[in-house]
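Posting for a labmate who doesn't have an account.
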Amino acid sequence: MSGDRANKLVQEVKCNASKTSEGNTKKSLECDDECARLARNHKLAIALNIDPEAHKDDHIPYSNETLKMFRENVKWGQMQEREIRVFAADENEKRLRFKPMPPNQRAFLHSLSEDFGFDSESMDPEPHRHVAVFKTPRFVMAPMKTLAESVRIRTSAETSGAPLAETQRKLQANNEMFNGFLLTSPRFGLTLEELRADCAASLDSSPGLLYDISFLPREEIVIKARPASSSTVFSSSAIEATIKALKASLSAAIASKHLATSIQLCALDNSLNITRREMDDPANNGGWSQVAAKAAAPRMAPRQMAVGEKSVYTVLGSKLRDAKKKKEEMKKAKESEAVVDDWEEEMKKQEEAEEKAVTDAQSHKDVSNSTNENANDNEGVSKAPEGKETDAEVAKEKMQKHDLPEGSPTQLSTTAEG
């Protein structure tokens, strides 16, 4: 076995050692480009007094596209990498064919072959389309790091670098000057002309600055401040101070017209991308102006009810109760109506019921009249002894009550009896 200490290359060869000859035991492999690179790094580390153990090599010899596809299917990707490495180690093999596979897997083989320094080509139509890999003069050797090792290095770098990058982004954002306003959740149907007219009193109060109003696709509106002319010079700090002083009046105008839900300061670039928001600053609470909040929601005194005045809830409750009762009555009336098969029979029954009702009413009236007459007769008889009236006077009075003419049979019979 022969090796290279600098490049860590290993190759199996016959020993051929004997008592009289050393054979291949002291032979070494020739240095390649990777070996030369490592040798230069070693010399630089010695010159700069750098500990190689404390500074591991984090170079990744694969493209981002290769690593991305490898992460999607690690087990299958390792199998393909193993076949390509065997092909790279065999000097006699000049071409490698893979079995037919889907387009996404063929794309991974093309990308990996390019990282190794091979040429690749897709052959045959579907469903027999496959990838063929060829060795070229630009191929030197297989990368020392495997795909799995490169993925671990990349993941570690992303994990350690993410907090630092986020911190740098926040620091950079906090250093940017505010140059506009951001309106969120605008009123439905709000137009540019209407917004400009309602905010004109506030925006026109700052001389030397003009304000461009733009609608963003995510239900936001930005108002960017800029110098009125090219000859006017305004520093970023001056623009920020001006719009900060303008925010209170603009917030009150927007709240009074209900133009948007909230307003806050923001920093805008030339493409109207929001690079900084006031709500992102720790010292602010959401970015909404307290002046606008007070103007939009004034404190209302509780209303005192007059004596004898009914509450709104009482009136509504009685109306609902009456409506519900009427609905139930209509439902009962509808249920009581039955479908009649023979309408003639039903009409006959109805007529008989009406005749019976009339007969009963007439009978009740006759009985009532007869009762009244008997009562009157008894009263006349009882009064005669008290007033010491004769029978003739009683009979005469009775005939007058019944409107009978004198000399009628009733009178004669009464006189005869007397």
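Reply:
Got it, the structure tokens are right above this. The longest strand covers residues 260-268.
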